Amino acid sequence: MQATLKQGLRRPPALAILFIAALAMSLLVGPAPNAAPADLRTSPAVLVMVQDPGCPYCARWEAEVGHSYRASKEGKFAPLVTYMRDHPEISKLEKIVYSPTFVMLAYGQEVGRIVGYQGSDLFWMQLEPLVAKAGFVRDH
């Protein structure tokens, strides 16, 4: 009996623990504070993250990408601002269907969006043309 119990107990994978911790933190503290100017119409570039309460993909993005995005050159160029889907500040954006949706704005005009979150590598790959359209020039 004891051998059966030991075989049935397995250590959860580190990614699962990280995901659960990020989800718990997002539920406890809410979205990250808005780093961009309050008036999205006058900001040269801003990345708007639209989310829903309890969104597991939003928590996963925050755990896997959030800090590195904010610290990156792209994040300095286009600061992240987060809003819940029903916030009046983003009511003029085209319809948001999935959570999260990342909308790149340049002086209040949408230049592109990333719908959903499928992992860190894909996010950075999808982000590259958006920041370029907003005017970001990568120094080599």
Produce a short descriptive summary:
It contains 5 helices and 4 strands; from the N terminus they run ααβααβββα.
Describe this structure as you would to a colleague.
The protein is of the alpha+beta class. 41% of the residues lie in helices and 17% in strands. The chain contains five helices and four strands. It has a four-stranded mixed β-sheet with strand order 2-1-3-4, covered by helices on one side. Helix 2 crosses helix 3.
Task: Tag the structure with descriptive keywords.
140 residues, alpha+beta, Glutaredoxin, 4-stranded mixed beta sheet, 5 helices
Q: How many discrete structural domains? A: 1
Based on secondary structure, the structural category is: alpha+beta
Distance between the termini: 62 Å
Average of the residue pLDDT scores: 82
Strand-and-helix sequence, N→C?
HHEHHEEEH
Percent strand equals 15-25%
CATH class: Alpha Beta
